Amino acid sequence: MDAHWAPTAGKLTVSVVIPLYNEQENLPELDRRLRATLEPLNVAYEIVYINDGSRDQTLSILQGLAQDGRHLVVNLSRNFGHQAAVSAGIDHARGETVVVMDGDLQDPPELIPAMLEQWRAGNDVVYAVRRNRKESAWKRIAYFAFYRLLNHLSHVPIPEDFGDFSLMARRVIDTIKASPERNRFVRGLRA
Ligand code: UDP
Ligand code: MG
Predict the structure, then answer these.
(1) pTM, entire model
(2) Atom 25 of ligand 1 has which residue's CA nearest to it?
């Protein structure tokens, strides 16, 4: 793994962590919409992209992004899978809050300001919930069964149908980082 560090610009309010596997089609629009959303907020931010062994042009698009200290690119040596990529991003994030979102435009970046408002109102974890999943019926059934089983086994209720799109305060991030799990299921630890 190699990371291209953005210079630290004092205290960062928010790190946006985005795992990417073959997202060349979505990445330019995603980055443009993120910047357009975050720039007017007047807070210090960084966007942490994790390239999870993409076989397309994702990495070269990342290398071409503006070098203005807003981007941090973590390049994994191969494809480790979505949860591992999110974990690597969380380990590198330096913000007071960390937003985790998908890079396929299923999570609209325009929701981040509302999530930050909820954090300022005192919430340590803010979830964005998908009103209607666009996935196939089979995938929905699989998710349903997975969360039913998970909640059967877990002492802590883990919200069903919540994806990764969420904001976590620094103390939540540090707690997750301090947990001994080697393969972190971030959605479970977050709960
Ligand atoms: N992703 C990743 N590594 C993988 C598979 C996916 O980093 O091996 C990324 C992908 O680029 C996207 C996010 O994880 O940004 C969610 O992936 P996907 O859309 O396939 O998951 P789903 O929406 O089906 O939960
Ligand atoms: Mg998706």
Answers:
(1) 0.86
(2) 163
The pLDDT tens digits for 58-116 are 999 999 998 888 999 999 999 999 999 999 999 999 999 999 999 999 999 999 999 99
Residue 103 beta carbon below 6 angstroms from any ligand 1 atom: yes
Q: Print the SS3 string covering the chain.
A: CEEECCCCCCCCCEEEEEEECCCCCCHHHHHHHHHHHHHHHCCCEEEEEEECCCCCCHHHHHHCCCCCCCEEEEECCCCCCHHHHHHHHHHHCCCCEEEECCCCCCCCHHHHHHHHHHHHCCCCEEECCCCCCCCCHHHHHHHHHHHHHHHHHCCCCCCCCCCCCEEEEHHHHHHHHHCCCCCCCHHHHHC
Tell which atom from ligand 1 comes closest to the C-alpha of 79.
8
Distance 133 CA to ligand 2 centre (A): 10
Atom 13 of ligand 1: nearest residue by CA position: 102
Q: How far is the CA of 10 from the centre of ligand 1 (A)?
A: 31
